[in-house]
Every structure is written in structure tokens, then in C-alpha cells.
Amino acid sequence: MAKLVSMKVIIVGLKGIGIETAKNLVLAGPGSVILSDDELTQKVDLGANFFLSESDVGSPRAAACASRLQELNALVKVSVHTGDLTEDLVGSQDVVVMTTTNSIDMFRWNKFCRSRTISSYDLRGRKLTKPAPIRFIAVGSYGVMGYIFSDFGPEFTVADKSGEPPVQRVITSISQEESGVISLLDPSESELAKKADIEDTEHQGFVSFSEVEGMYSKEESGVKLWGHSINTSGVWRAKEVWKTIPDYLIVPKSKGGDGEKKATQYWVHVRDPATGEFKKDKEKPDGLEWKPVFDFECKDIPTSDFVLTEEGDRMQRMTNVKEHYKVKIGDTRNYSKYLGGGLLQQVYQPVQLSHRSLIDTLQQPTPLDSEPMPAVDGEKEALGWWYPMLHILNQALYQFQCLRNRAPITNNEKDAEEVIELAKRLNASYRIMREFGGESVAMATIDLSVPGKAPPSAKDLTTAQSEALESLTSMGTGQERALLALKESNWDVEAAMMMCFDEETMNRLERAVNVYKCLSAMKKLVLAAGAEFQPLAVFLGGVCAQEVVKHCGKFTPLNQWLLFDAIEVLPNSSLPATETAPQGTRYDHNIALFGKTIQQKLMNSKTFMVGCGALGCELLKNFALLGVACGESGLITVTDGDRIEVSNLNRQFLFRKQHVKKPKSVTAAAAATVMNKDLRVHALELLATPETEKVFCDDFWNGSGRASIEGKPFLRSGNGHGIDFTVNALDNVKARKYVDSQCVLHKKPLLESGTEGTKFNHMVILPGQTVSYDEGEADAPEGEAIPMCTLRNFPSTIIHCIEWARGQFEDLFVTPVADLQEFLKNPRQYITELRENAESFSLTANEIQLAIDKLCDAEGNGLLRSVSQARRVKDRGISACVEIAHTLFTQKFDHAMRDLQHQFPKDMIVNGKPFWAPPKRYPNVLSATDILSDEYISSFIVSVANLIAVAYGLHPLPVNGIDKDGNDYDTFVSLNSHWREPTMMTTFIPQNPTPWQPSTVKIDSGLEEKKGEEKGPETQSLQDMVRSLTSLLDQLESGGFDGLTAQPADFEKDLDLNFHIDFISAAANLRASNYDIPRTSRHKTKMIAGKIIAAIATSTACATALVSMELLKLVQQKSKCQFRDSSCSFAVNQFQLSEPKAAIVYSGYGERKIVPDALTQPELFDEMGKVKEDLVPVRRWRAYPDPHTKWDTLRLPPGLTLEGGIEFLKKTHGLRLSSWSVTVKDADGKSKGRQIYAEPAVDTSVDESLLLKTVSLEDSQQKAVSAIMRCAAMKNKQAYTTRWKLLKEMQGSEYRSKMQAPMRDLLESQLGSLQGLPEMVLEVSMEIAEELNVEAITPPVILPLT
Predict the structure, then answer these.
(1) In degrees rounded to 5, what are phi and psi of residue 1299?
(2) Neighbour count for residue 889 (Cβ, 10 Å)
(3) Does residue 924 contact residue 1075 with C-beta atoms inside 8 Å?
(4) Which of 104, 193, 255, 1254 is 20 to 30 A away from residue 1066, measured at CA?
């Protein structure tokens, strides 16, 4: 950080790339940025430089942009240099960025930067000079191709090459030997075990030690070298540990194997069948030939034929395997014996790297002993000649610019031919160099002197020719190769088949085609080279800015070139001059590239952008510059429910300090309109959710393309086709999936993107052609699973403590308070209904146990406690809040620790090993008497007291915002309130707290108990469970609940005055103290608890640049093969583009495992919460229709009743409706499912005739249950009771009424009015009607509502 804030940078050139680089850098926060660009602003510059306006036309570009860049970050000094660059100016900088494409200037200043030295004087006054090269970065673009060249000097240091956090592992032993072996916690000892994962390199392969018991230096004289102990010994080189084991191989079927059986082998000498002598083999140690033989084949082989070990034993075939839970270091014999414990910490070591000069890398950019030049597009890389072609073409463009003092004129055939001729000559000279000096001398593309030949086409083939082509391609031959062979052999299939194996002939044919492709691509790129492509400027500016930041020593700089092209975005065929002629507008570069027709289409497009944070700001800027929705019919509808926070300002560049607390969407729209006054934006402060579908209604998606502002939905107006495309700018998976589902429903393209620190990606979703986001993107991992017993009782890292504290927040202030809130809506009804259902045995044993636990679980938590606390807070105010806080402190950090010590004594031995062996840590007890001396104890008491006050209505929920008059407001406890004063709260702490008594609840140790070692409690009968439940209901009823309030917390990490992070930080650090784990800062706690990954402007810019390129392809209606998805990382210079995945086709039939429910099926989960796969039942499925994709639909006729819908599905599609549900939100905004229909289940254990003989459907429920309980023949009382209730329900008028009700009415009964909605996707489960228990996999089922 210190190096960044003092860094001085000069940026030469303020066109698109220059301004993007400058913007990203100023947001990053270097010490100073100097802008150098005296060229006068032209109107066309407004198409790529967002800080220029029409009033700046005629003014120097740098001067016009400086003040606006300064607004982004007051801590960065932004200044302007006028005139030519001087050596004094450049020599005073740390990094020079040249965005101009004048190669003479680049060569000159690159040479100067590499040669800089700095001087100093020693104590004797002698002058000392040492190299101090200035980092030099050249970045530029020609149309849709661009480059970045990075030169950090002949020698530079990188402290962290990847940016990945160093690993930390638990040690279980350290040997005393010449190469000491460190054994790490392995899976046999703990579920927390992790592989070493320490790469054996000079950068990552170093470790240090801490918390090791024992391992002290044996001799005083060795302390200086070895440290007092291994903990203070410094950094060690760590290497992998390998061991040799027998090589077990699968026995082939020819030798009696079954494809799975494995056996070991022995080495046997091979005899010559003719002479009977052993065959010779100079490569073998004994000079004889060996062969492996399976052990079961050895019985008839004489001992003399075996290869023997030095001990005279038969030699087994062995293999080397890495020991993943061990590493070895240097000599550990100088230390005393290892006694226990310890942590191994990876320590990155700085590495020295070297760069060559710009002029040296032109001929050969990547020497053979270095990493190859990064290839961005995998398909182009596979061609072999593409990236060398780009490098050659880039140099040809340099030469043209030097010769003509200008770039090629866009779409000028003469200029294009001249550049291509320069490229051919350059390539020819490099190829000659390679012939004589080898590949390391120069980089060249294919031989362009060979006559090119257009690739063969599969169009207009006769039937016979198509069949011939099919016969070759069906054998795995590529279509192009098959066509070449067929045409060369005059469509003789057999001759063509043989020709495909004739590499010489095929190489000749394919070489001619590749030359044609290469020259065609070069011409297409050069014809566009005179234009500035705004999205490419954004991408290169993002990469360049991040490259500048690498000067600080973190992340690996480029090596040394990055070449990028977006040739797919250009029109598929050449455009007439009338289409591309300049119009004298800011869009002239776009028109030159894509034509005025496409530009008009872009300007009149309708876009739905969801989210307006960092991604949204960049996208709106790109839209304004490209002209998206700047025509009379164009419109961008942007929606975001968030408001601007101070933390947003360092990456959401449209926002300034004065915008804090204002709506993101409205503010960003206003800022983007300043960049282009013609931009048409409709900004809304809404979330895109099912609740806002009346705003984003059918007419919005498929008609006018305009949201219903009043929230009064209307049907498709018929005057348009609705939204052209949707762009996600969201930061959470759930919202992304919802928008994705809407795009699938309405068959609209979706452009998706995301960032995670230095990583970024984008994804194109095309209706009917590609996977949807939901199919193609797995849920973001939440991190490695931590076993529950570890979180509850045995933490070993601060992350365990923070996760525990985050869980405590939910368990204390969210779940029980939400349960109380629901209960208080109608407490009498809750008690009455639960009592009646229990006493009539309408609940299963599992349901009764769940109800008991909700009232009062084994640890005393539940509604009973919540009602009691709410009553105390209502009656006694702050004193009750502090008492509850003190009680919680005592329970969590005192009594819970004493229970652990009691149940698991410090010297306890389990299975012959110490129970408290690493990673377990023996707990300490904390005391609340230290409230004023320990900041975290006082913070815990204060935060819990305030959170309890909010939970039970003493304080309002903490929120902030802007009122209807535009004034800021909040409901936070004021900073000077006595509620924030620990000293005051000590007056309410009980003087005689409840003393500790050993708990009767058995603590989960995480160890498997031996059979018979522990006996669980006796299983209660159903009658006993009912009695327990009714007793708890009596207690609940007697407590009284009139006037009580419940307000569950909604965790918010960004409101610092709401006590949420205060609680988690205090609880996590107190728990850390319980287990002698080092405490951590509030900031780190907030980052981990809030799952925050620091966002940076550069990755955001690059992601949106790639999205903008895809948007232009959508407007041109490109084919799927021309679109690209991406996955990129600045840290390791990974930039990968690939064609989007094809839509998943569901066909045939199969089996899938049923996802178990942890609450009702705990036996299917292990201690870590992972599913026991071998116990999970499977379910058969069949695709219907067969085949189909997610983009298909299964539509019901309008106006169906439920009974009619069931009948329609069965008769028309052969499907049986199993269940139908809807998702609704409760008063707290939480989603929950409500079932509308469930197919009556048939329980084969129930004898229905016996049931109806014993009980009448006319009986009351109480009478029926009594009769069932008395009937000895009915063994499963619960099953018979459930079946009777179902039969009675089906006979009743309510059931018949439901079956006869229109399906729309049933939906409205759960969701409210559906007026204006044309259709709805139903949440249904279906089975194949004619096959028992076979699930039907179908596309979305649509119910028309009109």
C-alpha cells in the first residue's frame, strides 16, 4: 500500500485507452498521475473519452480531462504536462504509460526508462550508482485489435505472484533427521485435514512455524543459526515427500479380470524362445530385459527367472506417490524432541524476474526458456498461426505509421494492401531467420507466399455429395478436412478416406486454406484499423491500469506482450461506402466499423439493466459512448434498490461524495446523461423480483419495452417487440437466477458478468442456443465446509470463531425472534391448533418433536424463552437487556467452557490418543468481571443489550435513508446515548450470577462412538410425546403475551451503527480467547462475516468491456459461434475466451439421487453436514418431450379448472400431476412455499377396507382417532389416521370445490390479484402417467391467465 500511494505515473495520450487507464488508476490511489496530450479534441473523440464534452471540442484533451479525473480521488495529485516529453520529467516517474502508437517514440522512451540509474554517496563520500529502471508500458489499438507491452526492466522483484492467500496447516509431528519430515493433520485424525498444497518452487515452497511445543535448540551456540526453537527459526525451504509403494494394476479381462480387480506385479527376466537365454537390455541395471507379470501368474516361473532385490527377494513393480499430508525441510537434528501442537505457515519468497526491451521483443516476443505469450482465444490459439499473425500485423502497422505519419484510413483498400504487403515481407524475413537460427530467433506465422485457397463450403451439395460427406464426418473427420479430401478426389469416398491419412497431401491442401484465412483475417483487421473501438479501449485500459499497479510487487506482470482482437464483432461481409462514410458525429468510428444501419439499430434498442453498482456504472458509461438507446425509440430501463455508500466511491466511478445516500440508479443515470445528452434512461429504485413483475410486465418484455411506472400492469400493446436484450449488473447469485428465469420465459438474450477481486468473467445467454445462467453457472462456493462440532466446541482458527459468531447472530436475534413474531400474530390460534392436532394424533412423531423443540429445545431455547425475555424487556427496559446480555456472556464463554472441561478433561485419552491433540485446543474460562478492562467483553455486553432492545421493540429497527422531503434520516442509537456506554451498563449486571452446574446435555465430540459404549435415551411413545407437548403449551399459555413485540434482525454489514458487526467481532474474539487463538480486527471480522471480496475498478471495467462487445454482436444478430464467454484473472495473466456452451438437451431416461432434507432425514448426513451418498435413494426419470431444452415450454389451455388441468396433462401429454405449489413472501419478506395441490399418496401398509369398516367418514376426527387407537388390527395408527383424514377431505365440499376451481383463481387465492399478467410459470412436479414412480423432466409449464 505504501508503495502505491507514493507511486508517480505519467500517461501519454488521452484517447479512449488513455482516459480508461487514468480513471482506473486514480480510483486505485497512486501518489500522482500526470496527463500528457496536447492534441485538440475532435467531436469523434467523444465516442471513447467519457470526460470530454461538446464544449471541449478544440481544446487540448489532457487539460479538458484533468479536473474531472481529480474529482474521482482527492488523495491523488492529477496534473497536466504540456509540450514534448523531457528526460527530466520522465526520469522522475515510477511508471510511464504510452497509449500512442508512434513506434519511434516508444523505442526512444523504452530505452531511456531501462537505462535510468540513481546515485547516492557512502559514508566516505564516494558516489554509488545503481540501475533503477522505470516501468514502461505501451498500450494501443488499431480498430478491433490491440496490444499491451510491459517492460519492468532487466531485473525486478515480485513478492506475490498469484495473490492467493498462503496456506496454513496443523502439525502433528516433526522428525529429528537430516531432512526433517513435517507430518500434517490427515483425514484419519480429523475432518479438518487439508493437503499441504505447497508448490515446490522458489517462490511458494517456503514455510515457517509457530505454536510448536518442544523442538528447542539443543546447544546455546546454535541459537544464532537455528533460533531458540523451531518457532523462532525463520523461514525453511519445504519440499514434497514421496514414497514408493507396490503398483496395483487392473487385471485385464484376457487374464481373468473383471475390469475392477487389481493385483500387483513382479519383474521377470525375458528369455529368447529360440535359445532359452535371457534377452539383453543395456538400459536395465543388470543388462537384461525385464517384463512385469501379475502375482497370480508367477507360480510356474522358476525363481532364477525373477529380478531379485539386493536382499534376494523377488522385485515387485513399484510406483512413486506423493504424500499429501507431509513436507520435508532441512536438518532438524539440532532441536529437541517434538512434544505436540504447532502450525505450519507458507511464506512467499520474492522472486527475481527479467524483461527485455521493446525493440528486442519485436522479432521474438517469447524466448523458448520463458512462459509463452498469453493466448486469449482458445479456438484461435489452436490454429497455431493466429497470434503470430497478430504480432506480425502489429509491426506492419507500426511501419505503415512511420512511413505515412498516420494510421491506415478505415475501409481504405489501398492502405490495407500496403499494410499487408509490409506484413508479408516482415514475415518472410522472420521465416528465413528461423530457418537458419531456429525457432528461438524469431516468431513468424504461416508462409504467406503460398497461394491461398478459399475453404470448401458444404452449401449447395447434391444428395450424393452430402451422403459422401456424412460418411467421412461420421468417422470423426472434421467437415473442412473431409470436404478438401472429397473435392481433391473428385468425390470418390474411398479415395478421400485414404487421402485423409496422407498427411503430406492434406498438409498441402490445408496450408493453402490457412493462408487464405490468414490473409482474409489480416485484411479485415487492417480495414478497421483506423477506427477507435470503444469497448476495446475500456478492456485495454483496465488491463493496463492493473499492470501499472503491479509495480508495487504484487501479482505477476505480463510476459511481455498481450495481443487481443475482436474480429468476430465486425460485419460478416464488407459494407458499401455509403454505409460507413463519416457523418460528422461522435459515432463516426462506430459507423466506420459497423455501418450507419447498425448504429441506428443500436441507438433505437431497448435494454433492461438490472443493478447499478460498479458494473452498472461502467455499463451505463459504455452505453452512452456507443450510443445505446440514444435514438428516438431507444430506452435503457435501469433498476436498483440500493443507495450509495461511502465504500462505493473507490470503484463506482459515476458517484461522488455528495451522492452518498442517494439512489444508485437515478444518480448513475443522471451522470451518464451528462456524457451523452441524447441517452434515454428510465431509472427505477426497485429490485427485480417476483413482487415487481407488475412493473416489469409482459408489455415491458414483449410489447412497448417500457416499465409500468404506476405498478398497474397492462397487456402487450402490440406496438413493439419489447426488450431487445437484458444486461445483469448484479452482485448475488439469487438475483441473477431470477433475471435469468425471466429471460428464459420471455426468450430474451441476457448478458451476464461478474467480478471477484482480480478475477472477472462474462457470459452470453442466447435464447434456444446456449445454456441459461442457471444451467451454466454453479452456485458460488461459500468456502470449505466446517464440521458443526468444530464450530460449536472445537475451533482452531479465527475463521471458525467468526463463522460461529455469525451463526450466533442468527440463532439469537433472527430465528427465535422471527418465530416469536409469527406466533404473536395469533397466539391463541397457534396454541389451540397445535394442541388439537397433537391430542388427535394428527401429527407424526417427528412433527411433534419439531414442535417441542420450537417451544423449548434441549438447551432451553425456543418460544418459551423468547416470550419470557420479551416480557422482561417490556416491563424492565434497559436493566433486562443488560441482564440478558450478561447471561448470554456467562453461558457462552464461561459455563460452556466449564462443560467442555468437565466432559473432556485435559488428560483424557480416546482410542489410545490424547483427546486434546491438535487441532483441538483446550478451552479457557472468561469472566464478565473484566467488562471494563477488556474491550471485547464490554463491546459484547453493549451490542447484545442493544440488539435485544431492538428484538423486543424497545428500540426501532436500525435503518437509514432519505425521507419524502429529501432529508437524511436514521433510527440508530445516537453516539452519545447511555445505551452505548459500558460503564453505565455495569450498574445493571447481576451481583450474584447463576453458578455453574454441569450440563446434562452430551457434547458432540465429533468422534464415532464404539457400539454399545453409549446408550441414548429411551425412545418415548407417541402418547408421552403428546403429553410433553401439551405441558409446554400450558406453560406458554400461562406466561401471557399481550403487548409483546418482536422485530427480527436483518443482518447488514455496511451500517456501522447497528451493532451487527460489533456483536460478531466481540463474540468471535472472545471465543478466540477461550481457545488461545490470536484475536483479529473488526475490519477482518467484517470482511469474513460479510463474505466481502474487495472489488477493484480494473476488473469491473474489463468485464463490462467484454459485455459491450457481445452487445454489438447481438445487434448484428451474429451466429452462436461468433459470441464469446470469458474467464480472466489479472493476478496470473489469464485471459480466456471461448464459445458459449450449447443449450442442454434433455432426452431419454435415467436415475438421479434424491436430495435429502437435513431436518427430516438427519440419518443421511455425516458430521460435516455432507450427504452420505451410499444411503441416498435414487429416483427414475424420463424426459418429456423427448428431446427438449430449457427454452421450450409446455403450455396449458386457458381457463382450466384444477381437475381439468390434471385431466389435460394426463390425456394430452401422458403426465400425472404430483404436486403444485407457489412461492410467497411472508410479512418479513421471507420466501416460503405454499402447496395448492398434492396428489393423494397411497400407503400400502393401510388396509382401506378395514379402515372403512372400523371408522365412518361421517365421524368426527376425535371419534375416528379413538376408534383407530382401539383397533388392534391397525398396527400403524399414524398411517391409518392420516389415510382417514385424506379420504374425508376428498369427500368434502372443500376438496371438490378446489378441484372445480379455475387454476387462475387458486393462484390468486395465494398470490393476490394477477390482473395484467398474461401468463405464469407453474411450480409443479409431475410423473409419467403410465410408469410407476418415474419423474417427468419437462420444460417450464405455462398457464395462460387471459
Answers:
(1) -65, -30
(2) 24
(3) yes
(4) 193
